[in-house]
Amino acid sequence: MGKKPRAKMSIENRAKQFSPFAAIRGLQDALEKKERIIVEKIELSEEMAEELDRKMQQLEKGRIATVVYFAEDNYLKKTGIVARIDKSSQVLQIVDTKIAFKDILDVE
Question: How far apart are CA 62 and CA 95, in angstroms?
Answer without folding.
Answer: 10
